[in-house]
Amino acid sequence: MDYQAHLASPPGLSFLPGAATGANMQLIKGDRGGMLSMSDDSVMMKQVQATHAPDGREVDVAPLLHLVEDILNRATLQVEPPLLAGQAHAEMEEKNHQISYSIVLDALSYVIDRISCEIAYKALGGADAHGTTITILETLTSFQWDAKLVMTLAAFALHYGEFWLLAQIYSSNQLAKSMAILKQLPTILEHSGPLKPRFDALNKLIKAILEVTRSVVKFKELPPSYISQDVPALSAAMAHVPAAVYWTVRAIVACANQITLLTTMGHEYALTTTESWELSTLEHKLTNIHEHMRKELATCHQHIDEKRSLEEYKMLVDMFEMIHIDNMKVLKSLIYSKDDMQPLVDGSTKRRVSIEVLRRKNVLLLILDLNISNDELAILEQIYNESRLHATRLDSQYEVVWVPLVDPSIQWTDAMQTKFDSLQSTMPWYTVQHPSLIRKAVVKFVREQWHFRNKPILVVLDPQGKVVSPNAIHMMWIWGSNAFPFTSRREEDLWNTEAWKLELLVDGIDPMILNWIKEGKYIFLYGGDDVEWVRKFTNSARAVASAARIPLEMVYVGKSSKREAIRRVLATITVEKLSYFWQDLTMIWFFWTRLESMLFSKIQLGKIDDHDPMMQEIKKLLSYDKEGGWAVLSNGSNIISNGHGNTVLTTLIEYDLWKEHIPVKGFDLSFDEHHKKIHGVTYPCCRFEFPNTAGRIPESMRCPECHRTMEKYTTFLCCHDVGNPHEPSLF
């Protein structure tokens, strides 16, 4: 691009035409460096502070700064003509600003004109920059620091913009051409090449001036209701504002001096090394000031955000204690409070929809981060789709909404976006359009009030927005859609209908086992990751069943973790045909998730240590899973025995010691009595592990074996499962 054409829009300035004398040149040049060494001079800052005597008036300088920025940007940057498509919008914005401009300029135009003349006169007369700066600050003594700076910048922009407006139109407008000749503009533009370093230096300095000015105004605009001078970050920043204003005004004066020399002496005047050093030094100083203020401003904004989030958090807490006509106010406060966009995505159509689609419906908020497993998604989707088959039933009408909860302090990345898009595309229910819609206060509320710890939770809201269950995920795993409307009362009612039967452990997982139950067969559910124990157990069980002439089926259900170990056991069972097993590892995961959910359901209801035989057996089974192999024996649906792997295997091996009781007591009682006898001697320890992500962790628990209060430890555990390092497990 031809540099002369480029100059038709960028930098430069002409205040008044005239001639610079050699004496004036020396005055202007003589100031180079002298005042620049006073950045930390306390005497100078006392002089600056002495000019400041505000009368209490408050000036909204934002509209004026907006206007000045537009002038300076268009004069220092190549600005293309606006596109026709955006012209209407630009005109509308301009109309909106007109009123604000008029109000501010009516009050300040006289002072701005006075400063403009002062700068031009001082520059033409060769006054030192420091003296000119102090004179300007004295003229503005009754204004606040932000107003002083913006008004000085406006005075600078007044003639700066006039000069470059003529530069842009003088070739097509006769009046502009005559004015340009008067200001020697054509001659300057014809010799633009040698002047390029001067314009480049001015461009950089003007950019630094604007950055510092914006920062000073931003500090003044900080809401006093959220931050006060008592806050160290703000008090420290405000202490630096006078120096920042001084050096910015000083830089404006330097720009005026340079342009005055150019317009008065013509194109033959070249930028000296000393003058170039002054501009670059001022630019460097203002850049450092801006960077320092930027950091302080960021600290202030962090303080404000924290106070606002705390205020919003308290409002959320209060809102959930109120009674509402419908659920709209609650849902908007959690997801998106404004009406300017559609915050949800319909899982069936993948289209954006309004939050109104949830009005007066039972809403299940599926709260989870981006790390949900395929197993969890697959089972949830299966349960959800089954409920849709009965959508006309009154007791099945609910909507699920995925609320993606991401730590707001973590930088959002392309990888996270890809993962979010992938998850969102697979979900058949409603999802929040993007995690950024979930505000910081909502994240805090969900973590502290609903105990979210990175494991999925399902918060249930009734049609009025009331929380009827703080986490129905356990109900969903145990009873599926039969738990509707997923209230705590419904949870208690469902537990009242349950008993320690085999159906409780396998319902909804494998119809094959349900058929065995109907046929009255003996069934061994067993698990563990010790291949040798599995081999001994299955062979011993088969031998006892043959000797006792009972129909026996065995099902291997793995462990709650260690998938690679489970795969090795499954391979052995397959090759040696040891028993029946679930080929789909998702079924194994679901078995243990349901079992663990039974424990958490009782914890949530506050009944973990009730004298409930069924719950004691569930706790035993979960504990045995941590100690090795285990087995549950049932006759049809009736569970005969639930024991640790060692005690059950010993009972089977010692069949000859108790088989004589079978004719009188029957197989079931004979097996159970001998097992209890062995169990009473070995008394294996019980152990439960609750990760921090489990959410509601009980303060204490009683041992299901001896009923004493268990000791509580903090454990650091590192279990390396090479095949699946992120496999889900509640324990």
UniProtKB/TrEMBL annotation:
InterPro entries according to UniProt: SEO_C, SEO_N, SEOA
Boundaries of every Sieve element occlusion N-terminal domain copy: 39-324
Signal peptide: none
Domain Sieve element occlusion C-terminal: from-to ranges: 490-720
One GO-annotated biological process of the protein: phloem development
A Pfam cross-reference name: SEO_C
PANTHER family hit by this protein: PROTEIN SIEVE ELEMENT OCCLUSION B, PROTEIN SIEVE ELEMENT OCCLUSION B-LIKE
Descriptive protein name: Sieve element occlusion b
